Every structure is written in C-alpha cells, then in structure tokens.
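Suppose you are handed a protein chain with no further information: no name, no annotation, nothing but its sequence. What can you learn? This example shows the usual starting point.
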Amino acid sequence: MTGISFSVHVDGAVVGTLSIPNRKVILTLTLDSTNRNKIIGRQTFSFTHPLNADREVFHYSTDFPSGGREVRDLNRNLQIDTPDRVDPFTGIVVPDEDVTFSTLFQPDAGVVWNAIGEDSNQDGTFQSSEDIIPDGVLDPGS
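A reasonable first move is to predict its three-dimensional structure. Written in structure tokens, the prediction is:
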C-alpha cells in the first residue's frame, strides 16, 4: 500500500443546526495484517476534524525555530506545484512544496507554545477561556 485517500461530503445546512462542540467528525483508521503468520499488532488511529471551519495550517520545523521559508520540489517534476492538489499521475495529494514555517517561540520569555498545549498561562489548571478544542479538558501540547 502506497497511499490512501477518502472524501466526506457534509451538508452545510445540517451542520449549521449542530451546536458548536458537536461540529466535528472523527475518522478512524485501523491497520492490521492479513498475513496471520506475522506478529503485527492491530493499530488504530483517530483523527478529529472540525466541520464548517476555515482551514488554517501552521508548519513548524526545528530547522527554522524562529520561522522561515523553504521551497522544495518533492516530486521532482521541475516545478513548484499548487498546494493541496491531487497529482494526476499518482492520484495522491502532493505535500506543500512552498512552505512558510511559523516560529516556535512567542514574545513571552521564549516559551515553546506547541509544548504547553491549551495551558496558555502555564498554571496547570483548566480554565474555560483556554479550551481551544471545546471538550472541557485541558489538552496537553506535544
């Protein structure tokens, strides 16, 4: 297997009737071996995606900790492809070839924000104002 793709159509009118915390879909991917002679455990991954939300993507890189830009021709077709398009030859979505990396740091004493998650004041307690993912839980960073 070299790639998997899928698409989900959601009726915007139906999503509009849902409360904000319920405007999400959870896609689950389960990988298992069809060859029972190999000892490979089943692995399951869940991905939560918001519905009716504007797409906002941030790229981070330890090669550019203060931010930066990198242009690379990943599929070696001698051109920089439009992001988020399906490659007509392979049928897969081409990764961004012109990438602008966001800074890992914020102006407050160099705190790495993707490491603290939703705990923006770093006190270790849940406040509703910090609940970026509206699930009632203080989600940790990576």
